[in-house]
Design brief:
The chain has 863 residues and is α/β, with parallel strands linked by helices. Helices cover 50% and strands 14% of the residues. The chain contains 31 helices and 27 strands. The strands form five sheets. Strands 2, 3, 5, 6, 7, 8, 9, 12, 13 and 14 form a ten-stranded mixed beta sheet that branches. Helix 28 links the parallel strand 26 (772-774) and strand 27. The radius of gyration is 39 Å and the shape is elongated.
Amino acid sequence: MSPDAYRQQLLAPLRRGAGAARRELAARIWFRPEAREKQVSLEDLYDAGVLSGHVPSREQLERRIPRFDAELAEANAHLAQTRDALTNQLTRVEAELADARRAYDRHEREFQQAVDGWRARVRELEASTFWRMTLPLRALAHRGKLAMRYARTLPAHARLLKPRLATARQIAKDEGAVELLRRIRSKVAARPRPLGLTPRPGLEAAIHPLHVPSSEKPRVSVIVPTYGEDLHTFTCLKALAAEAARVPLEVIVMDDCAPQPAAEVLRAVTGVRFERNAANLGFLGNCNRGAALARGDYLLILNNDAVLGPGALEALLDVFARFPRAGAAGAKLVYPDGRLQEAGAIVWRDGSAWNDGRGDDPERPEYNYLREADYCSAACLLVPKALFEALGGFDERYSPAYCEDVDLCFRLREAGRNVYYQPAAEVVHFEGASHGTDLGHGVKRHQVENQARFAERWKPVLAAHRVNGALPRLERDRHACRRILLIEACMLTPDQDAGSVRTWRLIKVMQEMGCKVTFVAANLEQREPYHAQLQQEGVEVLYAPYVRSIEELVKERGAEFDIVILARYYVASRYIDAVRRHAPRALLVFDTIDLHYLRNRRLAQLEKNASLAQGAEAIYRHEIDCVQRCDVTWVVSEVERDILAREVPRACVLVQTMIHSPAPTRAGFAGREGLLFLGGFRHPPNVDAARWLAREIVPRLRERLPGVTTSLVGSNAPKAVLELAGPGLDVVGFVPDLAPWFERCRVSVSPLRYGAGIKGKVNHAMSHGLPVVATRASIEGMHLAEGTEVLVADDADAFVEAVVRLYGDEALWNRLSAAGIANVQRHFSTDVAARGLEKLFEIAERRAAAAAGQRLTSASRAG
């Protein structure tokens, strides 16, 4: 039926009505007011023309349908063309990627062959007659270079000769010529560790009976995923057996449906739990299943081709003991031939990763300090079990393997936890024992695919990372907000001298404020156990033979530091020029430790010695010169700050004092006895004080306090001090832990007759609630009120009287004990140190902003 016939049939019943009513009714039934002859959407035309019967709309719809079909056909053709182009482009990209993978593999093989060839050539050359015959010539040339380097430092040494001779004469006078010679020998003796890789133990020769102790309440559950390679698994289990003697653990060998069951091959091994999967789950699924079966507080994911070194598990656990926000800890991975495989990993902006230090010497300092890392390989990764479960284990999107460990570490950080690289945990890793290293075949092909998944998943986070390969030394410590180089005269020894205690604790405060600290001793020494302890505190400690000179270090790495601190005038005077030349953007800080010239002036006055006075004036010129040439000078007290304000009014001088934390006092007055003198005897004022104490004070004390012993505790006691031992005076010497002495003794004495700076022996004792009797020289600049916080006396009789009074008055003892702790809290706490550092950082930021503004101005003028 045509549209007109249909309309006539529909309107026929209405024609019988009146004309006006009929037209009104027809309009209401047939026509929609909004449907007019205009260009409207197809949906509206369909609604009006088909559903409502509006003929003009239907006619317009009929006219537009052919055009719409043509447009749709054209769009479909264009879409098909675009899809074909994208498909072709994707095919080309995949082909190029495959070519790149093959080229990479080829280049890597060629590079390894070249390295092997170079090594063979080196061995051949070193074994040649020519090489042996020219050895003397090469040695002479090397010594010539050393001589030239030393010659460049002669002017600085010459300037320091006079004060050093004065110090040497004083040491010889107080401690004897033998002690002077011993000190000189210790300064010039160099004991650099020889360079060269040390091969690690390889695989066990065969599988033999082995028992791995297993705990009913394991602290650590070790998950060992396996797929064949049973001799590797046995070697791994043998190392775990040794660790089980130190840490309660259980070992779960997860057999991923290997052709030959691990439990059968390793039937000679007892104490191990063997679990076999019904089907192959891949590394990721295998580890997740093993974690679900574990009972320990911690999970150690450990490849079956990874062999724990002695103490490695304890070192990993120590990370969680010391860092409450730790979420995972990884080990230093080393190849069997001694090369480094991984010292933590760096993840770049594109999601690719570097095994930090791969192929390098694992003993190099930059790979041996505890630090945060982007991730650590699951070849050996320790994670709290509850945390692993809370995150859902390894993410199944990376199944069967690769990138699941990187993703886990990123999710840990997303949850507010940190990932740490622990260099003290060394693991020998036979990389690729199960799946090889070819990225184009087998399970390894998933490494490239999963990297793309990981990059897409963490794209917003990775945007803050550097592009691949850019400044890896900075990326290694990406989390640092400031980088500080600290150069001291020698290795810090906090159990032997108060200056080292201050610097050690100052470094700790810097780290808590987000700084990365690099420490180097001017004599480049590597001294156990101190350098290893600093490394475990997260400090990069540099030393010989990996650093040949401070000048070369500053030249190579000066640009990376925001602040350079030179401690003591005889260090600063040698290296100020090098720092200015090679680290121009760094804020240069001169740390006086104490004003050496002030101490030596006071000694000269005390001894009435003209030679000492001349030496003191030489030191004065050097110290004031350093103050003038550096951006900031640190002193330890307001007294020294005021002195320098008069001497060098334009200098920027900040107080950065000693740091102590009040310790709880367990023993009361009645449970204590004896007197304590504390001091490192390399410090001449302590030697002088010990001699005055022994000759003038102890004999009087024996009369007033019979049976009471005075103990001299401190490192490096020379013969002159050892000979002071006698009735009522015990020369104890060095003790590694002072806390028991602070709890055992009733009174601490500090009979210093001269000195400068803050006396660590005084506020260290007060921090433990041990009251002090001291001379005025001992408490200078310490904000101590006489009679309220300390008893003060300068002559022998008054000193003895003060000791006797305090020793017998419990009420006075309690008042001084409490007041001393309060004084330490007010003036020497970590909060006080942090406020001082904040001032320094503000100066550094202003200086950096001014320098950036100058560079911008210069660039605009040049443009």
